[in-house]
Amino acid sequence: MNFHTSPAPLLSRLSFFSKSLAGAISLSAIAHLHADVTMPPIFGDHMVLQSGVPLTVWGWAEPGEKVNVQIAGVTATGEADKDRKWRIKLSPLPENSQPTTMTIRGKNTVVLSDVLVGDVWLCSGQSNMEFGLGATSLKGIKLQDEPQIRLFTVPRSIRPYPSEGEMAPPTPESPLSGKWLVATVDNAMKGGQWQGFSAVGYYFGNFIHAKTKMPVGMIASVWGGTPAQPWISLEGLQSDPRLKGEADSVPRYRASYEQNLKKYDEEMKKWKVEVAEWEKKAGYPLNEYARHVKDWGHEADKLKAAGQPVPPRPEQPPREPRDFANNNQVSSALFNGMIAPLIPYAIKGALWYQGESSASQPLHYQALLPALIADWRKKWGVGDFPFFIVQLPNFIQGGQQPIMPPDSPSVWAAMREAQKNIAAAVSNTDLAVTIDLAAIKVSLHPWDKWDVAERLSLLARKKVYGEPNLVAHGPVYKSQTVEGNKVRITFEPDSIGGGLSLDNPPLHLYYAVELPRPSTPPQDLTGFVIRRSGQSFRGSQSLHRQDNTVVVSSEKVANPVSVRYDWADNPHGDLYNKEGLPAGPFRTDAIPLGTK
Known about the structure:
The chain is an alpha/beta fold. Among the domains are: about 115-235 and about 330-400 and about 445-465, SGNH hydrolase (Rossmann fold), CATH 3.40.50.1110; about 245-325; about 475-585, no CATH class. About 30% of the residues lie in helices and about 20% in strands. The protein has helices at about 5-10, 20-25, 25-35, 125-130, 185-190, 200-210, 235-240, 245-280, 290-295, 295-305, 320-325, 335-340, 360-380, 410-425, 450-465, 495, 505-515, and strands spanning about 50, 55-60, 65-70, 75-80, 85-90, 95-105, 110-125, 145-155, 180-185, 215-220, 350-355, 385-390, 430, 475-485, 485-490, 500, 530, 540, 540-545, 550-555, 560-565, 575, 585. Strands 1, 3, 4, 6, 7, 8, 9, 10, 11, 12 and 13 form an eleven-stranded mixed β-sheet that branches. It has a four-stranded antiparallel β-sheet with strand order 14-15-20-19. Strands 18-17-21-23 form a four-stranded antiparallel β-sheet, with no helix packed on it. Helix 6 (about 200-210) packs across helix 15 (about 450-465). The longest helix is centred in the middle third of the chain and has 39 residues, at about 245-280. This is Sialate O-acetylesterase domain-containing protein. Pfam families: SASA (PF03629).
């Protein structure tokens, strides 16, 4: 099923980041857009609709045109307003794994086929969420077609103002983006921006479907190398005074873009006159202009040989405004282009894997990410939907020691703490710990996305899918007790599971890097450091587990006051529970970290 973008924004911003689109759409095609009922690309064949909540369907039509939507015995009617927009509310639909159709009728009829009703999850963030299924190299996992799972990749798009459903066209790098795909192995390997659909999103959908048997739709809105600021709306930035700098930057970028757009439009008019003159004198049609600019010398020689006058060489077309066009770091720009087009398409929850590009500002992040979560929830208007955060894994910067000294500062450790604090403070959020998933071949992009997705799915099963007693975390620090020259660490009871354990990183990590997994777990507990008042942290020399606690001491530290665990960019702790989930990094002190 082919869909058109919104006609009104298209007319007013035809030149906006759309060289290929502008060259492909004629005035007659734009006129055709006005005549038809159209919908955003998020509505299409093979889509999954969210079950159990009111649904909003929207699109464009002639002003005053009546539009009717029907699906699975539910029907509703609306009318396009003076701006050609229509929006229709449907009553909640029950879960339905049998393909059905949605029919939209106005002056024309649109039929969407193979529609399922289940749960829809949004996965967003930067490159580790973008990391495609074809890049994971997990030899221990056999993929198969999953007809009850559907995938949608939002095309990359940078906009100064929020889209109302329009999306950028697919690119050669991501030709299957902007439409729903059945999760066949072929589609999963080809969809997305980076060697396939988001591996975390794909595996998560598989885990949820395997457990619930319901249809699952996974929407990936991702862009590598991006901080959090571009993913939040201007209103979201304005909600917290601590984000004033980012909020104030958005109007400045918009004003600069509008100024440059005006200049661009003026230059484009002049260029079109020049091209028309060339076409008149040289006899070449407009759609061949680009080739003849390049080949002007050769064509001029031909005209000379034929005794004909040579018209002036046409200039290259003016460049589009650059303020937003190639800047995915601009505050709100990715929300406008890659999140806003999805709203209010109903979702079950969101998965967030981002932080590498924000690691230098962990304290600021504790204002930024909660504002983003609140912003998305407010914009979707479906309550405090689940929002699950992937904590940063272990990582070695170039030139760093494989194991950092105990008292070394670590911005990544501080960022992990910020992520943990956010998950603890914001309602209906949780944290998937991945501190062990780059433990063998360290990379900014750990290959093992299977275990990331499984840990996210455990959070969802516990909080969303009715398994409140499920052990979904590794050991979570609760408190410390100083006992002479020792410190006893206790953990939250529901995180201990079957008991504390020494373990290796997960099996799938070894598949990823093609190394044999050790046959026995480590014998010595590692990862803890200890300090006394006024002293730097020292490596612990005595560690043992006792009644599901850990006792930490060192002959170099008398009268200890605090302990840290896995507090480094690239720690090597090995504390797990018997369910195979790692303890997350923690510290028992409150020393200011000296970071932003």
